[in-house]
């Protein structure tokens, strides 16, 4: 049976754009629920400066309560300082981020791609030294909210730089949710030609209902790692118009119908979604 | 630019399961609207015995009012008698139908696959003699409502028989709407290996939201003809649980985002959908 790996990004990406703050205990419970259902790679924290995404200032607290979980505890880290915090907090995997488009990188990280990349070499070295796995994510790998369709060469350029750093996994993200299967194919193939031995992940949003078509095309061309979020939650605060992430339940259902991802107990997913929606609803309810 | 052909099946397949009867004038107007929008292959009539699908007893009347239309006017014909009627009525293309599964063929056509196929050889000869194009459709090419997943060999068997008859086009139909991309790939590839030079059409239903994923996979493996219906209307009266057809607007939007099917004026499609829904709504309204 062919292995498909689901990376659930709900505790971090899914909730960073939420209307209210989700308490640490609920993020921890959500992560444990996902792990229990068979999803063993979960993005739980972000170590961007809390000034930028205040809702995610609890990365250390979340990770401290998950240290017994024998899975991939992923933390987003935009720079060396973020990596240091992720190491100290007990993440075992960091996801670095660079946008393929300059404007989005500046909006998202407040510096140029070159400045970002030059920091990340040291960040990767440091993470590896501490025994962490390093994922190199390429944001706006399809369309940029400010620049439009992103040239494939920009994606290739970032992929090459990540390769030079020695990352363990690459990822391309359809930040806006406008990717089409033909674009997925061309971008997946170019990254794979640059880094044939580095596993490649795909992060999709589902704005136009094309998410699963993109998944199918990526799978056909060798991608085996897919990111998704419970209830399709999430969106990028620095990408106006971005829709939610690809829905975990929808993705797993789709794979299981094809004999894939059968290690996940899909019967647990509706309950996980409902519990999370209840938590969010509590934040939205007016105070008594 | 790669050619993609949309076959809109609304006037026949889309409306055969409608709650009320749609008048001939409205079917004719719908067909002309679709043609005007750039969809030049339209399934307009069915010549099954009117006892079985009374709503479609008007095939002759519909076709008689479309004789000036320089497009592909397609009529469904289940047997030799149906082909004779299609010829007499002025269709220029007939779609023959056999189910890959025996039970569905009996439910749909009231006879066995072998009996059906033996009639269709003569039907094909007769249609060709009269200058018509012949399409050979394989129903339940994925799952049968009575037998479950249909063995791929059953699909191959029907495709081979159609080839022996000399049909001009082949088609495989996901009658129930349960097909997955991996199944689409394997079934498309087996039919293409049997008939590499005969154009292959795909007829999808969209019950589970996997329609476009299946389209993407079929396109990737060389399929260039896709059937759809306005508003996702339609379903098979002899396939309990079948959902509507793949939606024409959704399909064209998806293709155009990829630089395909640009000969279709998508701006006309919402109006066509609305006019048709108004017609159907009139049938549903209680009499004064």
UniProtKB/TrEMBL annotation, chains A, B:
Report the InterPro entries cross-referenced here. Answer: Aldolase_TIM (IPR013785), HMGL (IPR043594), PYR_CT (IPR000891)
Keyword Lyase assigned to the entry: answer is yes
A GO MF annotation of the entry reads: hydroxymethylglutaryl-CoA lyase activity
**Superkingdom of source:** Bacteria
- GO BP: ketone body biosynthetic process; L-leucine catabolic process
Which family, according to UniProt? Belongs to the HMG-CoA lyase family.
Mind telling me what this protein is named?
Answer: Hydroxymethylglutaryl-CoA lyase
Question: Where does this protein come from, organism-wise?
Answer: Sulfobacillus thermosulfidooxidans (strain DSM 9293 / VKM B-1269 / AT-1)
């Amino acid at each position: 049976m062919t292995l498909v790996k689901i990376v659930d990004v709900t505790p971090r990406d899914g909730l960073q754009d939420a209307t209210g703050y989700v308490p640490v205990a609920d993020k921890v419970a959500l992560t444990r629920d996902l792990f229990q259902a068979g999803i063993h790679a979960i993005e739980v924290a972000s170590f961007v400066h809390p000034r930028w995404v205040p809702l995610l200032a609890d990365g250390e607290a979340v990770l401290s309560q998950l240290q017994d979980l024998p899975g991939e505890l992923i933390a987003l880290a935009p720079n060396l300082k973020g990596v240091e915090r992720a190491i100290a907090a007990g993440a075992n995997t960091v996801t670095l981020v660079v946008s393929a488009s300059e404007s989005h990188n500046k909006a998202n990280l407040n510096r140029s791609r070159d400045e970002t990349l030059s920091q990340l070499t040291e960040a990767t070295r440091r993470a590896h030294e501490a025994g962490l796995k390093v994922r190199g994510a390429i944001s706006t790998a399809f369309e940029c909210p400010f620049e439009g369709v992103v040239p494939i060469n920009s994606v290739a350029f970032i992929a090459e730089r990540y390769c030079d750093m020695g990352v363990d996994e690459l990822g391309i993200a359809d930040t806006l949710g406008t990717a089409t299967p033909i674009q997925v194919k061309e971008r997946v193939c170019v990254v794979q030609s640059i880094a044939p031995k580095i596993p490649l992940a795909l992060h999709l949003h589902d704005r136009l209902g094309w998410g699963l078509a993109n998944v199918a095309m990526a799978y056909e061309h060798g991608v085996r790692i897919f990111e998704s979020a419970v209830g399709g939650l999430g969106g990028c605060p620095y990408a106006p118009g971005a829709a939610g992430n690809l829905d975990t339940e929808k993705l797993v259902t789709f794979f299981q119908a094809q004999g894939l991802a059968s290690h996940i107990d899909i019967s647990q997913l509706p309950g996980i979604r409902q519990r999370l929606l209840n938590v969010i609803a509590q934040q939205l309810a007016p105070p008594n």
